[in-house]
Amino acid sequence: MTYGIRPDTHTSPVGGGGGRRDTATHYALLPLRLFLGITFVYAGLDKLTDSAFLQDGGSGSVGDMMRTVRDSSAIPALVDLALENPVAFGTAIAVGELAVGIGTLLGLFARLAALGGALISLSLWLTVSWASDPYYYGNDLAYLMAWLPLVLAGAPYLSVDAALRARRRGRIRDADSV
Fold it and tell me: Which residues contact 39 (CB under 8 A, 6 or more apart)?
């Protein structure tokens, strides 16, 4: 008995055709995009509006948090770098989270935003949650893994990137028909 290679039979729900499974496949990354985008916007705004967080020292400050995790982090030198100016570091993380979240929600430079989210999650995993035991108690590793599909796929639907891509395709078709 031989088995042939089955050609791709999926059709795009945007152009009509296809069933529920095709539609679900088409929009599979949208819930992840919404969750990560909303979470990172919230995290950024929470840090920027928390007067205790953006302090060099004191309860709830980024400075105290970094001093607490320094010896248990995977890369203490990274924490030392942050401790040179904890307020600037905390502000950079908060603004970065906000930019990543907005870019992800809008689908604007979606792959770049997802890469930024992955890098933020990676840096937090290697510093803040590295000592979590067992490892799955630290959520930064899970966030890092969640960003990877968006790094690879971007935001192909319901996004500014998709609208710009469609607009460029329209201009190319118009130029070809002249």
Answer: 101
Please, are residues 140 and 128 in contact by the beta-carbon 8 Å criterion? Answer: yes
Segment 101-131, tens digit of pLDDT: 999 999 999 999 999 999 999 999 999 999 8
Task: Verify cis geometry, omega within 30 degrees of 0, for the bond prior to 134.
Answer: yes
Q: What are phi and psi of 151, to 5 degrees?
A: -60, -45
Where helices occur in the chain by DSSP H, the ranges are 20-26, 30-49, 62-69, 76-83, 86-106, 110-127, 139-153, 160-177
Name the packing angle between helices 86-106 and 76-83 (round to 10°).
100
Amino acid identity, residue 6? R
Q: Is 50 exposed, middle or buried (0-12, 13-18, 19+ CB in 10 A)?
A: middle
